[in-house]
Amino acid sequence: MAQAVLQIDLTALQNNWRALDARSDVETAATVKANGYGLGAGHVAHALAHAGARRFFVAVAEEGLAVRAAIGPELPIHVYGGHMEGDARILRDADLIPMLNSVDQLSRHLEALPGHPFGIQLDSGMNRLGMELAEWEAVAEIVLARDPVLLMSHLACSDEAEHPMNAQQLDNFRYMTDGTDVPRSLSATGGILLGPEYHFDITRPGIGLYGGAPFLEALPVVRLAIPVIQIREVLAGESVGYGNTYIAPRDMQVATISAGYADGIHRALSNRVTLWAGDTPCPLVGRVSMDLLTIDVTDAPEPPDFLDLLGPHQGVDDIAALLDTIGYEILTGLGPRYARQYF
Length: 343
Ligand SMILES: *Cc1c(COP(=O)(O)O)cnc(C)c1O
Prior knowledge:
The chain is built from eleven helices and 19 strands.
């Protein structure tokens, strides 16, 4: 089988949830948007519910379906994108709680689904989603009379503990919500680590569950093992791959393995990343192609059957650093072609 295998350690995921839960005295929910950060929303949500998560968050209503199917009818699922035109049926059928972002969404919701639970998302400074102060002040009385289940906002700089934006957003969120008596949520992974004043009633971590920064103690959750299709001898002076960008400096053994940029392994990693044959580092040589990578396995003690791109020696944040991006993007970019194996 030439299909690469993405092994997903659900026990590590559960332990990461427990570790984040232990960082606060409040309820720890789980953000499982973008198909559970690429790992499979149903599997991830099911495992987290078993670990003790009692509430889930997705980005768009459609994502709530797989989560609802995985966790059963009881636990609440919130939708960050709120109530969009055409969402009423799915919100009702899957029993999802839209986090309303504007007066428009509020009107739409009260009209289409009177009596259906909702929350409110407030903008405390990020200027991305949520009602701004003036908008909120205009409708707060109407909203509060209808028992919203949650008031939330989102921090723009929570991965930088010293950033003054954190305290500023905390002040704004307090100003908008103090005295309301409605459960509140401000923090994702980064905010949990900022300390108790950021915790309010519910936290909603994502990336830390999946093993990424800024939760540095997170256990790795993914291993990406890519099968070797063939190994050839390449003589000193010969080239490898498209564009002849790699010229062998010595006689070497080159393995051709079965994954490429179509699987989220960015072409910008050409000649720049190391894979692992067990504990032996093996550099990628030449260009990343759509379905294949070429790897110098000369130093491997025996010809490998698989090479790891992600695993104990290298996580999503290491790959992200090479590409000047963040682990979130590497994780959510892992393509649909991998066999996802859960254990
Ligand atoms: C994605 C997201 C989260 C989770 O953030 P992490 O940094 O992955 O923990 C929480 N809240 C909102 C509004 C989000 O968009």
